[in-house]
Amino acid sequence: MSHYPQASFLTSAHQPSQFLPDEGAEVAFVGRSNAGKSSAINTLVNQRNFARTSKSPGRTQLINFFRLWDDRRLVDLPGYGYARVSRAMQKHWRELMEAYFEDRQSLAGLFVIVDVRRSVGDFDWQMIDWASQIGVPVHVLLTKADKLKRGAAQNTLLQAKKELKDAATIQLFSALKRDGDDEARKVLDEMLK
Ligand SMILES: Nc1nc2c(ncn2[C@@H]2O[C@H](COP(=O)(O)OP(=O)(O)OP(=O)(O)O)[C@@H](O)[C@H]2O)c(=O)[nH]1
Ligand SMILES: [Mg+2]
What we know:
The protein has 193 residues and is an alpha/beta fold. It has helices at residues 37-45, 87-102, 122-133, 150-164, 181-192; strands at residues 8-13, 25-31, 63-69, 72-76, 107-115, 138-143, 169-172. A seven-stranded mixed sheet has the order 1-3-4-2-5-6-7, sandwiched between helices. The chain is globular.
C-alpha cells in the first residue's frame, strides 16, 4: 500500500510556461545526476517506477510534478553536474531551474539527494544557499547508504552534519533497503502540512 493513496503523476514541464499553477504546497527533490532522486521518490511513495529511474545519468531534463494528496505535490527536478550533456542542455537546465526557484510561492521545502559516497558537493551547496535565501527549509538525504559499511556511513553523516550546521537537516537513506523512509516521510509531511 502506498503511504499516499492519492499519489499520481501530474505533468512534465520542459519550460516555465508548463509549470503547474503556483497553488497549494510542494516539496522539490534536487541532486546530482544519478544521485538517486527518482529512487528516493519511489521509496517514499512506496510505488515501483512511480518516478522513473535511469541507469544512464542525465536523462531527466524535465521538471516532473506529482500529486501526493489534495493540492500537495512533490517535484522531481532534473539532476545537475552531468558533464556529458551539451552546453545548450546545460543552459536549458539552468534557465529552467532559475525560473522555477525565482518565483515559486508554493515551494514549501527542498530535499537534496546526495550519494553518501560523494557527500555534499558544490552544486548541492548552491541549492542549499538558494533555498535559505528564500527561506525554504532543506532536508538532505544521504542515499545509497547500503553501499557503505554502517560505521563509514555514520562518519559521513556526522561530518556532513558539522558542515551543514543550521543550513539543513540530514539523514542516511537507502532506497534499496528502504532504510530511513519513515524519517524522511515525517519531514516531507511536515513541510507540506
Ligand atoms: N544500492 C543502491 N542503489 C541505488 C539507490 N538509489 C538509487 N540507486 C541506483 O542509482 C541509479 C540512479 O538512480 P535514480 O533514482 O535513477 O537517480 P536520479 O537521481 O533520479 O538520476 P537522474 O534522474 O538521471 O538525475 C540507479 O541505477 C538506481 O538503481 C540506493 O539506495 N541503493
Ligand atoms: Mg531521476
